[in-house]
Every structure is written in C-alpha cells, then in structure tokens.
From TrEMBL:
Residue span(s) of domain HTH rpiR-type: 7-83
Gene3D superfamilies noted in UniProt: Glucose-6-phosphate isomerase like protein, domain 1, Winged helix-like DNA-binding domain superfamily/Winged helix DNA-binding domain
Source organism per UniProt: Kangsaoukella pontilimi
Descriptive protein name: SIS domain-containing protein
TM segment ranges: none
GO biological process, one term: carbohydrate derivative metabolic process
Amino acid sequence: MSIDQTKPFLARVTEALPELNPSERKLADLVLDFPGEMVGYTATEIAELASVSNATVSRFVRRIGYGSFDEARRAVRDEQRAGTALLRFSNTMPTGNGAVARHFETSQQNLEVTYSGLEDELIDGLARAMLAAPRVWFIGFRAGQSFAQYLGWQTSQVLPNVTVLPRAGETMAESLASLRAEDVVMLIALRRKPKLVGAVADAARKAGAGLAVLQDRPSPELAEADWYLTCATTTAGPLMNHVASMAVCNLVAARVIELSGAAGRGRMAAIEDGHRRFDEL
C-alpha cells in the first residue's frame, strides 16, 4: 500500500484502514477517536492504551507513511499547532469539576500574553489611519469572519465607509476591485487560515492600501503588513481560545471611536436620531 506523503496524519490513518490487520485496526480506532493521544505518550504507552504490542505500533506508523513513532508524533504536534481542532482531543482531557476554572485560567494567560505585546502607539496609529482612510475593509475567514463582522459593526458608528468581507455570493476579486490607495485593510488571519489570505494581503499591498493583520501565529505571506497585532489563542481543549482575539478587536474599535473627534460624535448623533425615528431600540 502506497500512502500519499503530502496528506495529513488523520487522512493517512483513514486511507490505511482497509489494509490493517485486527491489532493495527484496534490501534487505529484509538487514534481516530482520540488523535491527540499521539503527542502526550510514548510508543509503549500508546500500545498499552490500545492493548496492543509495541511491534504493532511500529508497523502501524510505517503503514501510514512515517519512518518512526517519533516522526508520526511530530507530525501530529505540527498539525495541532496549525490549529487542527480534532487533533487536540485526547482520552485524558480534563472533565468534570474545575472546567470553568481551567478555562478562566487559560483565558487569563492568553490575555496577559497578548496585552504584553501591544503598545499605545501601535493601536492609536492604526485607529488614526482608519479614521483618515476613504474606506476601511475588515476581512476575515472562518473564525476570523466573526471578528471582522464585529469590527465592521462597531467602527461603522464613526466610520462612514466600512466594508466587511467576504460577502455572500460575491468573489473576493469582485469585492477587492474597489480597493484603492489610502484605504486601510484589516485582515484577521487566525488559525486555520485559508490559502486565500496571502492573496488578499498581496492585493492590499499592490493597491497601495494600508494593511493591518490580527494573527495568532506569524506567517511569511503577511510579513509586509504595516501593523501587526498578535493574539494568543493557546488552549488545552478542542477549540482555540479566542478570548484575547475578541479583546484586541474591542480595543481597536474602542480607540477608533474615542479618537474620532467631532466628526465621529456627529455621526453617532445622527445614528441615535435615526433610532428614535425608526423606533428600532
């Protein structure tokens, strides 16, 4: 059986299933149910968890295209770091009492790490650039889409021209054809970001627009951004912890509003007048 070496870990295991003997299949079932086990255990410990021999573990990893258990474990660890949620599941994940406290502790740590890397000059420089821009674009994919929507909603209280992408039924090429120099693009590039992110950043640079990036891991394709905002999303559970991501978005939106001056207050007054006339709230 030939395994495609470019495929991720779980795809290799699934592809190999029809060819596995009963002992190897038993090990595969454990791996598929709790793939995160590969990172925290030795080959001997994995064998004990699956009730198979060490030799079975060795044969299994070779069958799925790895030279050794350590090589397979490194591959799983790399995919975990890249944000693969399923690979963060394990058979020994914390359950029951204390879950709330553990989540709070993780969130607090992420906030501390994130805010230690932020400076007033960075945030205020970005906020002022947005206020001066003809149009501000908030672009986010997957988890980043929610944060882009939040930023667009909040800053539109003082910014007259805000666009949130992607939009339903519209390609990025159709949307970004309107991108101009002096605009500002804020790209939310959180794991696991699609390959399209690099092309969007390149489009912003070619148009002469300012580019801000909110990310939780540096990416080579985003190396030429004008503003970098890094948020920690460390987690012990199956989902990335985005508490700090939201905090940074809130900070940016708040500073845009606070620095908007008389023009911003005038727009907010007009919105409040509209609320009264439309009886919406």
